[in-house]
Amino acid sequence: MAKKLSFVVVSNNSNTEFIPFLKEVLDSMISPIYGPQEKALFSILQSVDRRCEVLLSTVEPSSSPGTQPSPPVPLGLVVYKIKPTDEFARFGVTNSVEIKTLCLADPSKSSGKGYGSALLDQVIEYARKNGANGAHVTVSNSKPDSCSFL
């Protein structure tokens, strides 16, 4: 049985079954660093200015008749602004998609498996398709693992 990775966009209009995962990530990983995330959650779910994509792993069923695929397991997520910005032009970053959140569901189990890179690549691909020069992220110094990954 092989693992298959895929992405789904999560909002009030699509893949709503992953909203609890999004809320859990915001509450447990992001709020302790940056404070309450209600406004961010609203913007994501309403697709106001942000997009959330969840990286899923599904175990493909064996070729035996009647074997069903396992339910998808969220491995991580990335939240980014929908429109490129020049907000950081003074640092030489122009026409760039801003990554707001990029994290793994369980870094202790998932680190080093390429999932973080897959999340980052997803944003870069979105940026290219939407005419941006690239993507950028700001990182809190309180998260050394994040700083070293990026």
Q: Any chance you could write out the topology, listing elements then pairs?
A:
Blueprint: E1 3-10, H1 19-34, H2 38-45, E2 50-59, E3 73-81, E4 96-104, H3 107-110, H4 115-129, E5 134-137, H5 144-149
Parallel strand pairs: 4-5
Antiparallel strand pairs: 1-2, 2-3, 3-4
Question: What do you see in this structure?
Answer:
- The protein is an alpha+beta fold and 150 residues long.
- The chain is built from five helices and five strands, in the order βααβββααβα.
- It has helices at 19-34, 38-45, 107-110, 115-129, 144-149; strands spanning 3-10, 50-59, 73-81, 96-104, 134-137.
- Strands 1-2-3-4-5 form a five-stranded mixed β-sheet, sandwiched between helices.
- The longest helix is centred in the N-terminal third of the chain and has 16 residues, at 19-34.
Which structural class matches the secondary elements?
alpha+beta
- Major beta sheet summary: 5 strands, mixed
Question: What helical percentage do the residues reach?
Answer: 25-40%
Note the run of SSEs as H and E: EHHEEEHHEH
Distance between the termini: 32 Å
Compute the number of helices: 5
What is the total tally of β strands?
A: 5
Shape: globular
Q: Report the β-strand fraction as a percent range.
A: 25-35%
Low-confidence stretches: none
Radius of gyration, in Å, reads 16 Å
Strand order of the largest sheet: 1-2-3-4-5
- Output mean pLDDT: 88
Q: Summarize this, please?
A:
With 150 residues, the protein is α+β, with helices and mostly antiparallel strands. The chain contains five helices and five strands; from the N terminus they run βααβββααβα.
